[in-house]
Design brief:
It is a single chain. This protein has five helices and 18 strands. It starts with 6 loop residues before the first strand and ends with a strand. The protein is globular. α3 packs parallel to α4 (about 185-200). The longest helix has 13 residues, at about 110-120. By secondary structure, the protein is α/β, with parallel strands linked by helices. Bound molecules: flavin-adenine dinucleotide and FE2/S2 (inorganic) cluster. Flavin-adenine dinucleotide (FAD) binds near residues 63, 67 and 234.
């Protein structure tokens, strides 16, 4: 079994993002593959999974949604932050997919940013959709300037394309005739995206979020069907996910109870 030692690094930069998200840069260089995650540890509180937006310096973006992320919001530049990882199975870039579309919703911008960076370095054309509820919730607009084209979509039309991220993705698929689609975001959105990709006969890879305790395939809290999201994923093939009754419909809470998405 792979062991993951605890790494502790200084927070060198904190920056506010759209919505309730904050970006942290750490004085540390990591070798995460796009889509892999780390388990961030706050002493006396616990560990939570977070994506990696950049390896050097390690860059995280955290949305404030509950007790752990409330505590993260209290951290300052110069404080130390601990984590284990990188963990899990990330995105696979197919070298034959010359033109790729990335669809990111909410903090789904985090792992997909590292993917966009790698894809550009490897010579792919990279088109990106960043979906948000309103213009105030948009994240990573500047960071995704590395893309060949970025389309921001907002549900209320306050910025960019008016509509949801899947409608924006459909527009980009038609415009650029892309070869593959990659996404991270709300699971309902990704289910619609997987259905669109199936219709368009496009391969797609999707990064899931499930409740994680151990992060290394032992506790079973992150299961979808018979797969462990932490170890077999978090990135899965879209068409395979469409065969799951749970995908985009239900997940498990901290106590293991099934709850609707
Ligand atoms: C692989 C993966 C990557 C993630 N990457 C990011 C990221 O880059 N940025 C980001 O802001 N968030 C990310 N998340 C979600 C993040 O882990 C949760 O928002 C965080 O754990 C919430 O903790 P809380 O105590 O503040 O909120 P709570 O009040 O405990 O919960 C709020 C929400 O967060 C979910 N959550 C709580 N604990 C966990 C847990 N142990 N594992 C998974 N989900 C949990 C709950 O199901 C609930 O939907 C990721 C989750 C996974 C599984
Ligand atoms: S979090 Fe324990 S098996 Fe995935």
């Amino acid at each position: 079994m792979v062991e993951y030692p605890m790494i502790t690094a200084k927070i060198t930069k904190i920056q506010k993002e759209g919505g309730k998200a904050t970006t942290y840069e750490l004085a540390y260089e990591l070798g995460a593959e796009p889509g892999q995650f780390i388990m961030v540890w706050l002493p006396g509180i616990g560990e939570r999974p977070m994506g990696v937006a950049d390896n050097n310096p390690v860059t995280l973006t955290v949305a404030q949604v509950g007790s752990f992320t409330d505590e993260m919001k209290k951290l300052n530049e110069g404080d130390m932050l601990s984590f284990r990882g990188p963990m899990g199975h990330g995105f696979t870039l197919d070298e034959n997919a010359k033109k790729i579309l990335i669809v990111a919703g909410g903090t789904g911008v985090v792992p997909t940013h590292l993917l966009a960076k790698k894809a550009k370095q490897e010579g792919h054309k990279v088109y990106v959709v960043v979906g948000a509820r309103t213009k105030n919730d948009v994240c990573y607009e500047k960071k995704f300037k590395i893309a060949d084209e970025l389309l921001v979509s907002t549900d209320d039309g306050s910025k960019g394309f008016k509509g949801n991220a899947v409608q924006a993705a459909e527009k980009m698929i038609k415009k650029h005739k892309v070869d593959a689609v990659y996404s991270c975001g709300p699971e309902k959105m990704m289910r619609f995206l997987a259905e669109l990709c199936k219709k368009e006969k496009l391969p797609c890879q999707l990064s899931l979020e499930r409740y994680m305790k151990c992060g290394i395939g032992i506790c079973g809290s992150c299961m979808i069907g018979n797969k462990r999201v932490c170890k077999d994923g978090p990135v899965f093939n879209g068409e395979a996910l469409l065969t799951s009754k749970e995908f985009g419909k239900s997940k498990r809470d901290a106590g293991g109870r099934k709850i609707p998405i």
